[in-house]
Amino acid sequence: MIPQNLTLPIKIGSRGSPLALIQAQQTRDRLKSAFGLDEKDFEIIAISTKGDRIQDKPLKDFGGKGLFTSEIEQQLSDGKIDIAVHSMKDVPTMLPAGLIITAILPREDVRDAFISVKYNALKELPEGAVIGSSSLRRAAILLAMRPDFKIVNFRGNVQTRLEKLANGDVDATILALAGLNRLGINEVMTHSISAADMLPAVAQGAIGLEVRDNDVSMIKLLSAINCGESQAEVNMERAFLRALDGSCRTPIAALAQVYGQQIEFKGKILTPDGKVVHEVAITAPLNQGEVFGRNLGLELLEKAGPDFFEPLYEI
């Protein structure tokens, strides 16, 4: 049943990239199906973020993840939109006052994808191969595997990065398989990389729905499309990240997976040059995932020491 006092059309805010708009459309379509609503009952609003506008610098050089969410969250706080749709791996662990992530859609494939027009596999790359990536996590893991790799900054949406690859700017790139699947272009992938070889980013593959914490009708509406298992996984990973105070300036990887009433977790932190790695793994009761995630983050922080991420190594 549609919550009382719900005002139509429902305004869904999103970044304006093709992938972000598909994620907004998926949210709309799930709500349409759950409540028998029509297309006219929704308005998708594309919002330009600073992270999208600045393409010539690494994220770590001008502020980090919040640059993909702050403008959208401002419009949500101001009441100009009702729902903010985010790729959860882009969302800082501390949200603005008055906003909450109230639902997580069923999670996509968490793995990364190796893409090259020259080579058939990551292991086939020659010495000194150039790999394009804007992710410090991917760069650090790649350098831990092969210190001879040359990692170059590779910004832009998926299509832009694929164009740069086709033009020969780099020998290969690594992208999230979830994005390729949602765009319907996973055929561009040369092969997937197992999570064991390249642990994903926190909340990779997850779409989060953010609302005002006093918007009771919207919270009730979105509860109908929330995936409890995906939410538990994301919450545990974000608790781990929050304990580490992680940002785009820190290579951090984590993966929680629900199995019945248990949740398996692996976490990893690396120096940006990949030379030092600390890892944790545990199986915990599902209802205590966030507590264990936080404790594991604190455990790694203590093991690594307060200066682990400083100075920032150039890659």
Describe this structure in words.
The chain is built from 9 helices and 13 strands. Helix 8 (228-244) packs parallel to helix 9. With 315 residues, it is an alpha/beta fold. The protein has a 5-stranded mixed beta sheet with strand order 2-1-3-10-4, sandwiched between helices. A 5-stranded mixed beta sheet has the order 7-6-8-5-9, with helices on both faces. Strands 11-12-13 form a 3-stranded antiparallel beta sheet. It has 3 domains: 1-105 and 206-226, Periplasmic binding protein-like II (D-Maltodextrin-Binding Protein, domain 2); 112-193, D-Maltodextrin-Binding Protein, domain 2; 228-305, Porphobilinogen deaminase, C-terminal domain (Double Stranded RNA Binding Domain), CATH 3.30.160. The chain is globular and about 60 Å long. Strand 1, helix 1 (18-35) and strand 2 form a beta-alpha-beta unit. The protein has helices at 18-35, 50-53, 70-77, 136-145, 158-166, 177-183, 216-223, 228-244, 289-304, and strands at 10-14, 42-46, 83-87, 99-104, 112-115, 130-132, 150-152, 172-176, 191-193, 207-212, 252-259, 262-270, 277-285. Residues 311-315 have low confidence and may be disordered.
